[in-house]
Amino acid sequence: MEFTREIYWNVGHGAWTLIPMYLLAIGAFYILVKAFIGRVAVYKQGLPLQRTDRPGERAGRMLGNILLQKKVTRVQWPGLLHGFFFWGFGLLFLGTVLIVIQADFTDLLFGIKFLKGTFYKLFSIILDAAGLICLVMLGGLMARRYFFPPKGLESKKDDAIMHGLLFAILLTGFVIEGARMAVTELGTPLAVWSPVGLLFAKTMSGLGDQTLLGLHKVSWWLHLLLVMAFFILIPYTKFRHIFTTSANYFFEDLGPRGKLVNLDLEDEEAETFGATGVKEMSWKDIFDADACTLCMRCQDRCPAYNTDKPLSPMTLVNQIGEAAFTNPDANLIDIISKDVIWSCTTCRACEEICPASIEHVSKIVELRRSMVLMEGEFPGEEVMTAMEATEVNGNPLGMGYAGRGEWAEELGIKTLAEDSDVDLLYFVGCYGSFDKRNIAVAKSFVKLCQAAGVKLGILGKEEKCCGEPMRKMGNEYLYQSLAVENIELIKSYGVSRIVTSCPHCFNTLEKDYRDLGMNAELVTYTVFLEELIKTGRLKINAENLSCTYHDSCYLGRHNGIYEAPRALIAAAGGNLIEMEKNRQEGFCCSAGGGRIMAEEKIGERMNIKRVKMAVETGADMLLSNCPFCLTMFEDGVRGADVEKQLKPRDIAEVLAERI
Amino acid sequence: MKIVLVAEYRDGKLLGSYGELIDFADKMGGESVMFLVGNDTDLPKYDGVVYLADAENFGEYNPDAHKKLIVDLVGKEQADMVVFCHSSYGWDLAPRVAFALKAAQVSEIVEIADGLPVTPVCNAKLRRTVKVKTPQSVVTLQSGAFGLTEEPAGSPVIEKIEGNGEGRIEFTGYEEAESGGVDLSKAQIIVSAGRGVGKPENVEMIANLAKALGGEYGASRPVVDSEWVEHNRQVGTTGQTVSPKLYVACGISGAIQHLAGMKKSEFIVAVNTDRDAPIAEAADVFVVADLKEFVPLLTEKIQSL
Amino acid sequence: MKILVCIKQVPDMESKFKVDTAGTWYEKTDLAWRMNEYDEYAVEQAIQLKEQVKDADLTVLSVGGNQVKETMKKALAMGCDRGAHIEDDSSSDKEPFEIAGIIGEYAKDKSFDLIFTGMQSQDRGSAQVGILVAEQLDMSAVSTVVDFSYSDGTVNVKRELEGGVKACITAKTPLVVTCQLGLNTPRYPTLPNIMKAKKKELLSLPVEDLLKVEPRQETVKVYFPEKKGGGLVLEGDAAELADKLIQVLKEKTAVLA
């Protein structure tokens, strides 16, 4: 016998089937396209932003993310359920397309049938399995959502419609197959190639042929209607993520990771800076809301959300979307609220995990820019004081600028003004220059370099704050004035390579300063020291050390440097016990996003929460690589009352003790 | 040398600061008379002539009228110098008098060195010796820089100044200090509690010491965060920036945020068990002691002074 | 309404001071400069008044070398309408009477309704200039103001007295007001206003044209006070320590007097 089946069996292949079917399909497709065109008009309310350059690279990323479900499966169980469902549903869709191609085109026009023989057997079993997988995965997802919902998961009408519709489509599919097989395939060798269909067929076989034929016909039309409903519903429900999230992979920020858009402060025409409404944001900021699937992954990881602050990155993104669709002239700052906007530490935990490539941080900074540049508003007077201190003395601590290089005098480190013939410029940063605790770190780093025979120079009193905390707080003007001065200074000394011990300085000089003409090479001290150890220039006498390690957001998520610091800890003889939240999942110390200048007034203290996580490891020492983190942890161990159990230290300090 | 000392009177009471004027006159070695817009029921203990204008007629604050009285008195007494306290009354009136007399004014004298007045510069980081070029001079004295070691004694000879004072500005009354809300930024003496106090109950001993010294108590951030002390008492960059005459830091290690908020204090005492605590850098006196033992003892001794 | 606000550029008090070679002032290198804190309140109050009465012209004035224009730009960015820079490279040698004389000379034919300034400067701290300007212009003056309101030619202010008590004062314009810390919250200039400020009038006038008075005093020398205590460390029995500390406080401070 020929292994195949009759397409349009029982429903017929005549005009009475085809005309209504194609009319429905065309109608559904029309509604879908029209609705999306309407949405595109809403996106276009936003400002232009170039996100179609390097199309090849973008397409590659997009396909990788769609087909391999790379970002989705980063959260394992729900991710795998979604991933398998995606593949199952994708195969069912492809199978249906093949059927349409054969029945309505190749066979109809040329008499060519390819769904036969071994190919049909494979086709049959693969689709059967895909349907089963879809049902199981959907069942799992429904169980997760409705019976064991994770904390904070909200289920709306959208979710009920989507789950119900998908379930009905799959079920009617199997009923059609079962009814057809009960009448035509039971007892044939072909039946085993559709095991699930066979199960349905056997279950229904007692109904009698007449009933089965009726059931088949009704199910077939019902299935068709459901699928058409599915198409129509795509733009109106979260189903739209099939297109929008996929497209968002294409529109991804190609980097440098997390770099903010440089405001043109010389623009004489500009009347507003930053954003108060959707029309002052980019189209991508509106589109992001459409790409969001409300999966909560950002919120689950947001350190502000998890310490009872009002910020949820997910809510914020969707508030922007809602405003764009319902009230585009609304004031976003009022809608979102100031406390929410000021709560962000720009730690990037949200963006790192987002399966839809949404960019949360830049939206928040745009809103902050408007508050600071247009209204002169800050989260607190202490922040304004720090801004003014930076304007006057070039550091947010308000220390006299002339003393910036004093810490280095006893180590024989000269300023470039005194001696510019150096291997590297050490850009020390404000905390390393002025804060006693962090001066100890800067000194340790210098000693390590000296032991390796590296000649460092500093800028001393000529160095100014890199401007990172100010920029993240929205003060683009102050940031750019600081940046321009630093860049001109660095250029004037002909510096070619710069090392930093502050990840905030590193990130700013390495990425943000490029827009303003910085061209020297940047290296962060952890990577630099690892090089020195690898090449044998620096010898470290390993000595046992019980420690845990905190990935600073700006070395970790912002720059992907996770292993160099760990290699240094290993070289020091560290027995590293990881905290549960490490690497990409690291939990912010609270000081990012300019919040080092602000008081944490709302909710639980983030640094204390992080210190408690470190205490849980049982390690004696909490190692980090960032002056802000260290400052917060020194404060945190006192706040958590664990000064005796846990000592916060910088990696450079333990290394310097082991030269 | 003939000196006119301008005493102060507020809300129906003579202010005790007139003793500082007397001490200054003694140190200058001149002959002095005192001027007061006040009331004959509350008179300075002063062996000399007190020119008394009735506050009922001339107002407690009426710079136009008071200026005229002083200028007339200087003429009458052929005085060489007019001395005020460097206070809200003194620094307001002194320049007006100086202008009318075509005299130089030296503000906020902290001492007389080699016969010349010395004043503070740049938050008292520097000192400045001044030479007056006019025959007459007007000076104001830094609060507390001069003062009699004993209670002033003596009985004045009262010369009443009759008449009424006209002035362009109208004083309509006093507004008392708000109770409850404290403004540490203006406090002259602050005793602050750090984490070294150990537990909330111990904050009271810090408050007691502050009270004994006649000042306010404050706290470092961790103590405020623990809600042992209300937020308006927090000293540091995220709380109040303070510049009192005396700052006593008890059990405060001296995080940079705290140091930045209090290092403008004129005199800093640190009480801490850890000699290496960063607060040592800012402290004029570092007492190595457990505050729980030391603070109550100190309070007791100050109370019995 | 015509308003004048007088500001001074002073070193940031966090700076490390050195005595200059003449020994009569501080060395001006390695210092960070800013607007005298008291004057910031004056500028803010002047701007608030301008915003209240709408029809007002607000001039900011400063005496000093070219570098004071930087500080004046901040006042313009905060909201002053125009700047009058009295160019004087040796303003730090001038005593308050001379500075007041210069300002008075500038203001004498301009009929300002209100003149704001700080109650004192952070560096010299003489607390004289504002009132001397008023005397010279024969205007009335109120010093140490911590609360200000204006209505129809009448000004109601509160003066800060010792111990947190305030004196309530009513006065008519023209009036000089010297501002105490805490009078208001000086605003942070917005970026559009910073841009606008760049185009505002900022005229420099030579000091020679305005200085008509002779100095009445001079600085003999400026020096560092002897370090009191100088990081004195007290150790030992707690009771003895308390006595020692009381002794030190009596000697070095006025608080136990």
What is the structure about, briefly put?
With 659 residues, chain A is mainly alpha-helical.
Helix content of chain B: 25-40%
Report the span from N to C terminus of chain C.
49 Å
CATH topology of the largest domain in chain C: Rossmann fold
What is the chain-wise order of helices and strands of chain C? Answer: EEEHEHEHEHEEEEHEEEH
**Average predicted confidence as pLDDT of chain C:** 94
**What structural class do helix, strand and pairing data of chain B support?**
alpha/beta
Tell me the domain tally of chain C: 2
Rg of chain B? 22 Å
CATH topology of the largest domain in chain B: Rossmann fold
Runs of chain B in which pLDDT lies below 50 for 5 or more consecutive residues are: none
**Can you summarize the main beta sheet of chain C?**
9 strands, mixed
Oligomer: heterotrimer
* Content of β-strand of chain C: 25-35%
> What are the secondary-structure elements of chain B, in order, as H or E?
EEEHEEHHEHEEEEEEEEHEHEHEHEH
Shape assignment of chain C = globular
Annotated CATH architecture of the largest domain in chain C: 3-Layer(aba) Sandwich
Greatest interface by residues involved = B-C, 89 and 78 residues
Q: Globular, elongated, flat, extended or rod-shaped: what is the shape of chain B?
A: elongated
Please tally the β strands of chain C and state the result: 13
List the helices and strands and how they pair.
The complex is a heterotrimer of chains A (659), B (305) and C (257).
Chain A: H1 15-43, H2 55-67, H3 76-110, H4 117-146, H5 157-184, H6 195-204, H7 209-233, H8 241-250, H9 283-291, H10 297-301, H11 313-326, H12 332-336, H13 338-343, H14 349-353, H15 361-375, H16 381-393, E1 414-415, E2 424-427, H17 430-434, H18 436-451, E3 456-458, H19 468-472, H20 476-492, E4 497-500, H21 503-510, E5 521-524, H22 525-534, E6 545-549, H23 563-571, E7 574-576, H24 606-616, E8 621-624, H25 627-639, E9 647-650, H26 651-656
Parallel strand pairs in A: 1-3, 2-3, 2-4, 4-5, 6-7, 6-8, 8-9
Helix pairs in contact in A: 1-7, 2-8, 3-4, 4-5, 5-6, 5-7, 8-9, 9-11, 22-23, 24-25
Chain B: E1 2-6, E2 9-10, E3 13-14, H1 18-28, E4 31-38, E5 49-54, H2 55-58, H3 63-77, E6 81-85, H4 90-101, E7 104-109, E8 111-113, E9 116-121, E10 126-132, E11 137-141, E12 157-161, E13 170-175, E14 189-193, H5 203-213, E15 216-219, H6 221-225, E16 246-250, H7 256-262, E17 267-272, H8 279-282, E18 285-288, H9 291-303
Parallel strand pairs in B: 1-4, 1-6, 4-5, 5-12, 6-11, 7-11, 14-15, 14-16, 16-17, 17-18
Antiparallel strand pairs in B: 2-3, 8-9, 9-10
Helix pairs in contact in B: 3-4, 5-9
Chain C: E1 2-7, E2 9-11, E3 33-35, H1 37-53, E4 57-64, H2 68-78, E5 82-87, H3 96-107, E6 114-118, H4 129-137, E7 140-151, E8 154-160, E9 166-172, E10 175-179, H5 191-198, E11 202-206, E12 217-223, E13 232-235, H6 238-252
